[in-house]
Amino acid sequence: MDDWSIDEVEARFSEAAETARRLPPARVMGYLNVWPILLRMAPERAPADDEVHHFPPSPAAIDRMLEVTRWVQWLDTESRHIVWMRADRCEWSQIARRFGCAVRTVQRRRKIALSIVTEHLNGVSEVAAS
């Protein structure tokens, strides 16, 4: 991209959070479950919640997610948490409670953090072009 906007950076953070959510869980290798598989009857299966299976993300989506994780190095720790929590669809009030400030303050800090990332991206693309 030649010129990044705050909306594009915000969309990329949201996509990265969704990609991270769709990654398979990390499991410890080498452990074995020796319990037999229980076949349940239909009435026993009815109250069980069906697990939602997500398709794994594409390699291109994972590359974009890793690119976004490099972007957060330009931010301080608190701004990183604010940006990631909002990208992960947390409510403003929940984020504000976590940081002990008003909702409007959290919104302002997030906007500043996204503008910092946007400025870095636009600066990097200008340097790469010359």
UniProtKB/TrEMBL annotation:
Origin organism lineage: Bacteria, Pseudomonadati, Pseudomonadota, Betaproteobacteria, Nitrosomonadales
Which residue ranges does UniProt annotate as crossing the membrane?
Answer: none
Q: Which residues form the signal peptide?
A: none
Recorded source organism is Ferriphaselus amnicola
Q: What is this protein called?
A: DUF6362 domain-containing protein
Query: Entry's Gene3D superfamilies?
Result: Winged helix-like DNA-binding domain superfamily/Winged helix DNA-binding domain
Indicate the segments forming the DUF6362 domain, all copies: 21-117
Pfam families the UniProt entry points to: DUF6362
